[in-house]
Structures are given as C-alpha cells and as structure tokens.
Amino acid sequence: MKVIVTYNVPSSAVPEDYACHEGVLDQVRDVTKALETLGHSYEVLGVGNDIRRELTYLADCDADVIFNLCESINGQSGLQPCFAGYLELLGIPFTGSDSAGITIAIDKRQTKAILQSRGINTPQAWLAASLLPLLDPAQEQALSGRVRLPVIVKPAREDGSIGITQQSVATTWNELRSAVQEAAQRFGAENVLVERYIEGREFYVGFLGNTRLQSLPVSEITFENLPSELKPIMSYDAKWDPDSPERRSFRRLCPAPLTPEEQVRVVEICEAAYKTVGLSGYGRIDVRLETTTGEFFVLDVNANPDITDGQGFPVTAAIAGLSYPELIETIIKHALEHDRNRS
C-alpha cells in the first residue's frame, strides 16, 4: 500500500505557539517508522511552504491513502478543515475526521451548541464580545448576575492548549477583566469564550472507529506536588514546556481509578460526544468530573489528538493491546472504511 503522510510545516508566525506546531514532526517520525515496520511504501509531504504546488502534487498522486497530520496551514488552525475538504474533493481516502467533523470540533462554541442540543453536559460559556459592556467595574453587579465564578477564558478556535495560561482561570472579577482583555487582544473578543470552570478530576477518553467505536482505557490527568498558587489545568506550558512546574508535576493514570458506575458513565457521555460532533477514525474526548455534583462535563472534543509514540493516545492503545504499528494500521483501516461509506 502506498501512503502519503501530510503534515503542517511548523510556522513561526506566532513564536509563542511554535512548540505546539513543531510537535507534529515527532508524529511524522513515529508514523513513518511504523509504516516501514508494516511494509507500506510512503512519501512525506509538508503543507504550507508552497500550498499551490503541494495541492497540485496531491491531485496528481497515486496514493492509496493519505495519513493526514495537517493540523494547521501557516500556523492557522482554522484552516485545518479546509485541507481535509480538499482531500475529500480529490476522492483520496485519508485518516482521521472529515472536514465536517473537524469544522465543528475546532470551533468550541459550535461544539458546545451541538452537544447541548443533544443533552450532553458541557460547561456553560459566554462569548467574550457579549460581556465587554459588563467588564466596566461600574457594571460588576450586572456581570455577577450573568456570570458565575470561577471561569476559564479560552480561544474559541484553537487547539493544542494555545492561549491557555494560568491567568486564564479567573476567580475574581478583576482577574476576569484582565484575562478577557489579554485574550481579546490576541484572538479578538468574538473568538474568545468565558467558560464556567469545573472544579474536579480530569479524564481523557480515546476512541477508534467510525460508527462502531472501540473505546480505549480511560486516563486521569493529575498534577502531583503542583505549587499551591497554580491551577491544575492543561495549560500551554503544561503541554509543551518541559521546564514548567505544570509539566514537571503532570501525571497520567491509566486505567483511571474510577468506580464501575463512573467508568460506564464517562465512556457513554464521551462516545455520545464523539458521534454527535461527527468524528471518525480516531479522536479523544476531554472531560471533568465535578466534585460538588458528581456530574461529568465535556471540556473538549479532539479530532486530532497527538499520536506521537509514547504520548497519551498511543499509551492507552497499548494498554488496550495495540502496539504502535498496530495502532497506525487500525487508523488506516478506519480511513479506508470511512471512505467506502462516504462513497
């Protein structure tokens, strides 16, 4: 089988996000090594240097399947579904979710709306632009009547924890004003969400498949010996800065220590979220178990979780009995199956 591995060329357009975009190179290295082990021929195509030439190359290629690791174009995560849509137009099978699923998953506001329409718990959120008139200290009473603290301020159309810092969590109105102003300056107030912060334990649930899903073992994300002034959140530093206190304290427990009833509930809500958003091939759902209510809340739906060997998704697959090459072969199998169903 001939495979073309496509990936986004890391962009330095936003220097503070470079580590996130550069992380795709580790995935390319490990996926191509697995393809060699599996006996597949492959080519690697970086997308973003000369987009017209790259798209023309794909239009003329004779690949059996595209292993799609393209998560942005020139540093713009919002263009990710456009690339998937182009592959759909070419009629070439490709791994991961299609353009429709990615479009919803990458837009947190749209994701929340569709989850809520199906009765799936997700934290209440407000568009920052709608709150700007209330951020004046003179409007604090009106703001408190609408927003309940604590909250977390996050970009609405980014992934990889881009834009998430310790200052994103606001427990006072002054902290909220500061967090919104900083995020709005970078992303635009219309692209920033103010979301109710769920106090509790955090879990990741990975899936393989299209309509019939295989759930991978649930992981719990913990932060051991985290300095008391820091919040236990998967910030950009926690994910990408190996020298940060968040990253040094980060731990993953898999299988997660859940009761049998909690295990059933979290898999059910995550499977419903996966299907509702329209993911395919593989994906991961991030949830929190609220301490006060015992309810699970969907925080994020990831159409393109990191599949670097040794990272979270492949580790849970290994616990489920899949070696890394077997995981890559399974992802390809689901891509071919999804393409047949789409036809």
Can I get a quick summary?
The protein has 343 residues and is an alpha+beta fold. The chain has 14 helices and 13 strands.
Structure description:
This protein is α+β, with helices and mostly antiparallel strands and 343 residues long. The protein has three domains: 95 residues, Rossmann fold (3-Layer(aba) Sandwich); 161 residues, 2-Layer Sandwich (D-amino Acid Aminotransferase, Chain A, domain 1), CATH 3.30.470.20; 72 residues, 2-Layer Sandwich (Dna Ligase, domain 1). Helix content is 40%, strand content 21%. The protein contains 14 helices and 13 strands. Strands 8, 9, 10, 11, 12 and 13 form a six-stranded antiparallel β-sheet that branches. α2 packs across α14 and α4 packs antiparallel against α5. The protein is globular. It starts with a strand and ends with a helix. The mean pLDDT is 91.
Low-confidence stretches: none
Count every helix, treating DSSP H or I runs of 4 or more residues as helices.
14
Using only C-alpha atoms, the radius of gyration works out to: 20 Å
Mass-distribution shape: globular
Mean pLDDT across all amino acids: 91
- The name of the CATH superfamily of the largest domain reads ATP-grasp fold, B domain
Q: Can you tell me the number of structural domains? A: 3
Highest CATH level, the class of the largest domain: Alpha Beta
Largest sheet entry = 6 strands, antiparallel
How would you spell out the order of helices and strands?
EHHEHEHHHEHHEEHEEEEHHEHEEHH
Strand content: 15-25%
CATH architecture of the largest domain, by name, is 2-Layer Sandwich
CATH fold title of the largest domain: D-amino Acid Aminotransferase, Chain A, domain 1
Distance between the termini: 20 Å
DSSP strand count? 13
Helicity level: 40-55%
Structural class: alpha+beta
